[in-house]
Every structure is written in C-alpha cells, then in structure tokens.
Amino acid sequence: MTKIFFLVLLLVSAVFAAADITRVNTITTDAAIEAAEAVLKAARKANHTVAVAVIDRNGKYRLLITDDNAGPQTEESAKRKAFTAVSFGQPTSNLTAAAGGDGVTIHDIPNTLFLAGGVPITYRGAPIGAIGVGGAPSGDMDEAYARAGLATIHL
Amino acid sequence: MTKIFFLVLLLVSAVFAAADITRVNTITTDAAIEAAEAVLKAARKANHTVAVAVIDRNGKYRLLITDDNAGPQTEESAKRKAFTAVSFGQPTSNLTAAAGGDGVTIHDIPNTLFLAGGVPITYRGAPIGAIGVGGAPSGDMDEAYARAGLATIHL
Amino acid sequence: MTKIFFLVLLLVSAVFAAADITRVNTITTDAAIEAAEAVLKAARKANHTVAVAVIDRNGKYRLLITDDNAGPQTEESAKRKAFTAVSFGQPTSNLTAAAGGDGVTIHDIPNTLFLAGGVPITYRGAPIGAIGVGGAPSGDMDEAYARAGLATIHL
Amino acid sequence: MTKIFFLVLLLVSAVFAAADITRVNTITTDAAIEAAEAVLKAARKANHTVAVAVIDRNGKYRLLITDDNAGPQTEESAKRKAFTAVSFGQPTSNLTAAAGGDGVTIHDIPNTLFLAGGVPITYRGAPIGAIGVGGAPSGDMDEAYARAGLATIHL
Amino acid sequence: MTKIFFLVLLLVSAVFAAADITRVNTITTDAAIEAAEAVLKAARKANHTVAVAVIDRNGKYRLLITDDNAGPQTEESAKRKAFTAVSFGQPTSNLTAAAGGDGVTIHDIPNTLFLAGGVPITYRGAPIGAIGVGGAPSGDMDEAYARAGLATIHL
Amino acid sequence: MTKIFFLVLLLVSAVFAAADITRVNTITTDAAIEAAEAVLKAARKANHTVAVAVIDRNGKYRLLITDDNAGPQTEESAKRKAFTAVSFGQPTSNLTAAAGGDGVTIHDIPNTLFLAGGVPITYRGAPIGAIGVGGAPSGDMDEAYARAGLATIHL
Amino acid sequence: MTKIFFLVLLLVSAVFAAADITRVNTITTDAAIEAAEAVLKAARKANHTVAVAVIDRNGKYRLLITDDNAGPQTEESAKRKAFTAVSFGQPTSNLTAAAGGDGVTIHDIPNTLFLAGGVPITYRGAPIGAIGVGGAPSGDMDEAYARAGLATIHL
Amino acid sequence: MTKIFFLVLLLVSAVFAAADITRVNTITTDAAIEAAEAVLKAARKANHTVAVAVIDRNGKYRLLITDDNAGPQTEESAKRKAFTAVSFGQPTSNLTAAAGGDGVTIHDIPNTLFLAGGVPITYRGAPIGAIGVGGAPSGDMDEAYARAGLATIHL
C-alpha cells in the first residue's frame, strides 16, 4: 500500500515538475516475445514459415524473427506491414482499398506495404506499435497470425 | 541614408565585378521557424500531430520538426512533398492529377510524393523553397497547415 | 483539485491495467524548438552558423535546423553528435578520450561521432534525448551552444 | 525404430541422389529465441538493457530483440558483432587485438565490429551462426550475456 | 560399404544430438557455374548478351556473371528475378499476372521483379535457390536461357 | 604513312595476341563536354534550366552538369533517363508506351525512368552511352535538347 | 546608365521588401565548365586522367566530369575533396594535419576526404563552392590541377 | 588472309572515322570464368572457401562467385580488393604500407580495401580490371589464389 502511494506521488510530481517531457508508450520486450511466439505457433500449425516483426511508434524494431526456412522477402515484408499499420493506426487490410485506388494514393508513401498482415497495437486510442507478418501463402493468413500475436498482449 | 547609399554601391559593384557568381535565394532560418510554428499551431488546433519540413531550392533541409507522437511515416512524407513542390514550383495538390494519370508520368521521378501537403515558397516568380506537411488524416488538411506556414513568410 | 485526483487515478490504473506497456520519455516539440532557438542565439552572438539537431531515445529527429549558410557537413555532424550523446548518456566531449584510444574502441560503432558538441537530455537518471550542434570553428564552441539549448529545458 | 530406419534411408538417398546440392547448417528459430531470452535474463540481472541479434552463416537475421529502453546504437552493434563472429569463427574479443593493430587490418572489412560481445555458434568445427549483444557498459559484459545465450544451444 | 555405413551413423547421430540445428539446402558452386555457362551458351546462340545470377534461399549471391557488353540494367534485373523466384517458389512468369493486377499486389514487396526470366531451383518440394537472367529482348527469352541453366542441375 | 602502317600492325597484333581481351566503346570526355554545352545552349534559348548527364555503357557518369538554378529533381532525372536509353538502345520516348502499359512492364526495372529526355549514343549498331536531360517543362523539350547534344558527336 | 539605375533600384527594393529572404552565392555553370576544362588541360599535360567535381555550398554537384579511362575511385574522391573544402573553407591540404592527428578528429565527419586535391571557391570571405580533383599519382598534383581550375574563376 | 585484311581495314577506318569515340579494354566473360575456376581450384586445394570477384575498369562486376559455405564477409571483401587493385593499378599488397601509414592516406578513399588479395589485370601498361579474393585465413593466401586466376588470362 505504501508502495502504491509512493508511486502515485512519484507520478504526480513528474506531471508537475517536467512540463517539457512527454511520454511515448510502447509494448514491453516480454510482451513482444510472447506475441511473436503466438504468431509462430499459429503459422506453424498451418505449416507456414513466416517472419514476424514488432515495431514501436517510431517504426523501430522491438523484435524480428524469421522462422526456419522463411523466404528472403519475408523480413522486409513483415517490417513494412508493421510500419504501415502503426503509421495509419489500422490493419493494413483496412487500407488496401484506399492504397490501391487510381492515381496518387497513400501507396506512394515511402517504406509502406499495404498487403494484409500488419496490425496496430492500440492503447488508449492511439497506435503505440504494430505486429507485421509475412510469408504465408496469402495476406489474410499473415493477418490471422498477426492477430494471434496481438491477442496475447494485455492492454 | 548613407548606409543605404553604401549598400547600393556594394550591390552594384558585385554585379559588375563577379560575372562568374550567381545568386540563389532561400528563406531565412528565422522565417522557417516562424512558418513551422504556424504549421504546428494550425494542426494542433484540429488535434493533429504532423511533421513539417522546410527545404531550399537544392532540396536540402532548412528545418524539420516532428510533433509529439507523430507517426513514423510523417518525416519522409513531409520532406518529399516539399521536395516535389520546390521541384515543380506548384503545390503538390496541383500536380496530383498529372502524376496520377495512366502510364509513365512525373510520378516516376525519384524522391517525389504527389499527395497534397507540399507548397512552394515563390519569390519573384521562382520557387526558392517549399514547406511540406504530413500526418493529418487527409492531404487537404496537410496542405491547409502548410499554407498557414506559408502565410507567415514575407516575400 | 478534482482534476489532479482524477489524473492520479488515471495514472495508477494505467500502471496496474497494462503490464505489457512501458513508457519512453521524450522532450516535447515546444521544448525542442525553444532549445534550438537558444542554440542559434548563442551561436549567432559569436557570428557562427551552425546546424542543431534534437533527437529522441530512438535516435529519431525531433527537430533539425540548419542556420543560414551553414556548411553542408553540419547537418550530419549535428545528428551524429546527438545520436552519440543519447546512446552513451554523456556529452560527446566526455567520450572523446575513450573513443580516440588505440585499437578497437566505441569509435567503431556505426552512426557515432565523438567530436564535442553533443549533450544528452537526462531525465530521472536516464538519457531521453540529446542535442547536437555542428558548424562552429571548434567542438568546444559547438558544445557551449548545445548547452545553451539544454539550459532551456525544464526537467 | 522403423522411423529411424526410414530416416536413415532418406538421408542416405539424399547424399547419393543430389550431387549438386550442399547443406548449410543453422540454428532453429526456437533455439534462437531460447538463447535470446537467456541473454536478456543475464543482462537484466545486472540491470542492463541490451539488444541481441542472432544471425546465420549468411549474415542474415534469425532474430533481433532490443530490450526496453536500449540505446539506439545497440541494434546495429549487436548485428555487427554477430556478423564478425560468424565471419571469423571466433568471439570478437579474440579478434580485437588483430583488428586494432597498426596499419591495414581486418578492421577495414565492411560491416564488421570488433568490440567484445559477439560469439560464434560452432557446429562440427564450423561457424554456423553467431550471437551478438550490445548495450552493456562494457564489451566484456556484452560477451558474458552472449555466452549465457550460447550456453542454451544444444549442439 | 563401410564408408556408407559410417556416413549413415554420422547422419543419424547428427539428427539425435543436435535438436537445435536445422539444415538449409543450396546448390553447389560447381553446379552454379555449370548452370551459368549453359545460360550464356543458350543466350549467345541467339546473339544475346545477358547477365545471370544464381542465388540461395537467403537471397544471397552464389554467382553473378555479366556477359561481354551486357547492359547496365541486367545485373540488378537478373538478381531481382532470381530473388522473386526463390521467394515465391515459382518462375516469375507464373507470377506476372498476380503481380500485375489492379490495386495492391505482391508487386509492392521490396526487391522483387516480376518480369519473366527467374526460375526457382526446387529440391524436395522447396525452393532452395533460383536462377535469374536479364538482357534478352524479351522476358520469355530470358526465361528460356534460365531454364537451360536449370536443366544442368542434378536434383 | 609509316605511322598508319605501324598503327595497323599494332591493332592487328592486338587482335591476335589477346584473345581474352574485349573492347568497350565510349565517347570521349571532350565529346561529352561539347554535347553538354550544346544541350545547355538549346535549353537556355528557351529560357529553361536543365541538368544534363552523359553516361557510358556501364551506366557510369562521364559528365553531369546542373545549370544555374535547376530544380533538385533534375540531376537524378537526367541520369536515369540516360541509364534507360543506354540500357535499351532507344530514346526513352520510344519506350514510354511499353513501360506504361498495364501490369508488369520494363517500368519495374530498377534505376530506370521512361519519361522523354534520354537518347542513346549509338555506334556501329550498339548503344555505347547516352545523354539524359531533365528540367524542361515537358519531356519532349528535354529530348529536343538531348538531341541537340547528340548532334555534336561525330560517330 | 538608365539600366544601371533601374538595377540599383531593383536591388535596393529587394533588400527592403523581403526580410525573410537570404541569398546564397554560387558560381555559374559556365564558370564551372571553364574551370573543369582548365583542370583537365593541366592534368592531361602531365598525362594524368582525373575526375573533377565542382560543388556548391550545399554540397550539391554543379559539375562532374571523369576523363577518359579515369579510375573508378576518382569520381567519389573528387566529390568528397570538394565537399571537404567547401565545408571547412580551406584547401584539403591545409586540413590534412588536423584530420590526421591522434584520436578523434574532423576526419570522422561523414562524407569528408582530407587528401590534397580539394580547393574552396571563396567569395567575399565565404566559401561558396569548391573544386575537387582525384586520379593523379599524388594529392599534390590533384591540388595543382584543382588550382588551375580555380584560377579561371573571376571573383 | 582476306579476312585479316578486311579486319585491318575495318580497324583503320574506325580510327579515322570516329574521333569522338574512345575504347576501354576489359577481359572477356570466358576469361573471367576461367580465372575464377582457377582461383577456386587453388583455394580448395588448401581447403579454403573463398569468394572471388572480377571487375572491369569501371569497378563493375564481370563475375562474382562465393564458394560453398564462404563467410558472409567474403563477397564485399573480394569486391573491394578488386576495386582497389584496378583503381591503383597494383596488387593491394603493394599498397598496404602506404594505406596503413600515419594520418590521412589513400586508406580513406571510399570503397577501397587494402588487405592483400586484389591483383590488377594489366594490359599494355594500363589496369583494365582486377581479381579480388577473400576468405582465406590470410591475405597472402588470398593473393596467391588471385594470382592463380590471373595466370590463366592471356594478355
């Protein structure tokens, strides 16, 4: 109880003392590993070898794993799907239609990939990271595996 | 008065003395900061977190600011929109139709991005720089914020 | 008062509800701009044209400004000095000796620059960002200007 | 028993049937995860936040994890140490002296980093991968954590 | 006979002793050279100058040869076609329709090229490498030459 | 006369003595400069500021000039148009239709740009280099200027 | 006379009307070509084949020429020497001692090269560009050729 | 006899007709393959697995082969050694002392590597290409294998 009280004080003082500081949320490493293992487990059940990337709000790797014998394109695919999901705060599958329209679209933004398989990690209404999966025979499967990972994260 | 006269002489002599020198105009750092602050203010009023880039005629950064919690895609988006606007001397929104036409278009020129949000800084009829904004829910909003920045520059 | 109480509850609940979330601190955009303006003011007083970079703990730009007529090497210098300071949690001038020793040293780590001019932004004992300055005739001056920026940040 | 016999037949036939095929060994994904978790556990015990990379004989990522709040330089450091260890088949700490000698040395080979913290995964006398760790206050500690990971791999 | 028996024992023991090791198959260097020579021979018969790339499952070069006077675009074309073929386990010509459809497709995956001329090297049902050819007047010819190379590999 | 005879002998002996040597033709530096000056002169007559690139069969720069105040996109545009023209042995304007067709086309080959403005330098039926121009209001004008340069080369 | 008077007025009005505009000086394209030709002439007299780069204050190419048969390292050498000279406002030969000292020096700043052969173009006390030369047997010769180019520029 | 006479005429006419054309010599593809096979044979005799690169005067790949199980650092090492040898027209082992001296040296030129193992292919006194080898336990061995390749080229 005392510990909680202390913590509260600490947090309150932080809010008042440091007007020039702002906080960015991200998932913990342990949560990223647990999510990645769930992704791999789901993919392997279907005999698929995938790469899984977990990135933070800055687009930086928290985790990257390429499963045994995954194709050489899966690493970058997984990363870009996650980058796209955290950038737009939506699953890449929600964005595919907009990106694939005629003319100039968000498709042209560098480092994005609008194939299904990227899902945002949303906390208090804001995207704080994303999971991206590549390597299954279809993007829908990639997304299903990404969601299996997402389901393990306690928000 | 004497000072102005001296200045005039200085400028005139420059014109005659150095035939091998040419001048490139660019906005001042202070103007770039003032413009960026106007961009951020306009975007925040709508609760949007954006990145703003100000570049010169060479495509080089004068200023880059990413607002608190802006997405990882906004930095490069803002830069490329500004690059595109200064390259073609027009707002990117004017160029979207041409870039998005069928077949080979200016869309293929490297480092460009033809989404709305880039506006040129025009001085004596020539583009001397540009402001690019990325991160709002639509390109039209990005452009509105970029124009709020442009409005602060005295040309 | 009610507002504070509510805030406290909010923070406490966050701590308990989301074991998979961790927080990364960074300075606000406004603080970054204020710091940069202090850097430029200090440098201009000595008639020096510099570039100033403010980066976060991920090594990502919060702000980059190159003053009028700053050399082409200053942008990357400022960024790398800031990167180095936030990586090691010390001013680059403290690291110069270690980096410059015989044989293999931290000097070899990619994207670092151990010239003076980078200072960490430290909050609760941890580096949460850094200011890097390049373009003055000596690294000591670059560092003095960076410190002028740091002095404006309320931690 | 039958299963083993079948396996033996399978392997023998492979050897005879495909003279144009050669095999490259690598550790499994599961082994890479287990090793990485051991690295993180050892580092956290000392309150250090590190990045850990596991790569294969081709220098390609099997796994990359950056622990909560690890510095921005740790990802590339971990990767390059692992790259160096698998390239030369020795811990990077064994190579530091040779790399740091006067004049032209192996230090100049691209993508290498000869700071301690990279250890090869050796199987039947050949390096088949490596673990690289970056972010501890000294390279010796990075190596100790890398070895904690190596100890979990059954060869 | 003794030798075979010994080999069998060796392989069996490997299977049991090293649960953390997995094997990746690739073609031998000699097979890659023989295949490349067959590619060149077929192309020259038609007076075409091509580049030929042989890559492994990791997308890494086993071999690259640019024939006398081949165009500057052929090296990267050959590599990317091979990368694409080994990534998807099919000739690039099989993938052209899917990649060229409306909207977002596999076409957007980085480092791919879906023009005809890339053929996978398939062993026991899995792509273990690929041959890519560029520089002939049409992709169909490039593919024919790639297949001439593939025909020399004993699987 | 003696000199010619000597030269003939020299060339003949070369042909016989060095079966392992082959020759690549390229235009001389002086020819490249003369061509570039003709490009600039033609462009300036119409008050256009362009960049002009002359490259060899390897896609390497022989010459690059960006005229006063040319846009930041012109350097890379000029280079890529020249790269494309020497790769395919035709003016880029001839290739625009093929590149801009539906689905997968030569448009996807890296480092190409199929806008008008690139013309090959053809010698004895083979492309030995190219001139690329960028920066005029239309590709047709870019091509006209490139052709003005080509006209000065004696083949 | 009237023309001069008009010009004076124009310049004066510019100074008063546009406080947010600043001017960057650079040499003209024609001056760059003339300088480059002088560099080549001087080098050829000694039978040396060099590359020559002329860059502006932003480090951007105004001109690049590689003479017939110049080595593949000369292009980047010439560019980096020029980059270094314009960054520091001195010939690279003046900087060699400082860059080559023990420990951390300006040598570590990205994109620099402190071998002799780069000379700044100085106008009114400020570096507005530079000429860089690479490919002669010694840096001193490279510098002599660069100076031959510099001598043709009227400042 | 008639054929030779015709050839002579052809060559002579070329010399007179095309003053704007110059010739660059390079080794043939077949010579490159033969040389590479000799390199591999020599290395394998000592049980070493190496990468071998053959490049032309432009620094562009004619051939790259990485032997079975060669380390991930060998490809770039082989290429850079060859690049260095063709740039300076000498074996890299001749250049090691100069490159490894105190202060600023040729060591700083981009894309070079001054470890032994690169040998130029010299024709009529000029470097027209180079062979680079990497992966043996010492540079001297790499050079011996490179020389075994060089010995097969008829100049």
UniProtKB/TrEMBL annotation, chains A, B, C, D, E, F, G, H:
> What UniProt keywords apply to this chain's record, in alphabetical order?
Signal
Question: What is the protein name given in its UniProt record?
Answer: Heme-binding protein
SUPFAM superfamilies assigned to the protein according to its UniProt record, in alphabetical order: GlcG-like
Annotated signal sequence range: 1-17
Q: Does the keyword Iron apply?
A: no
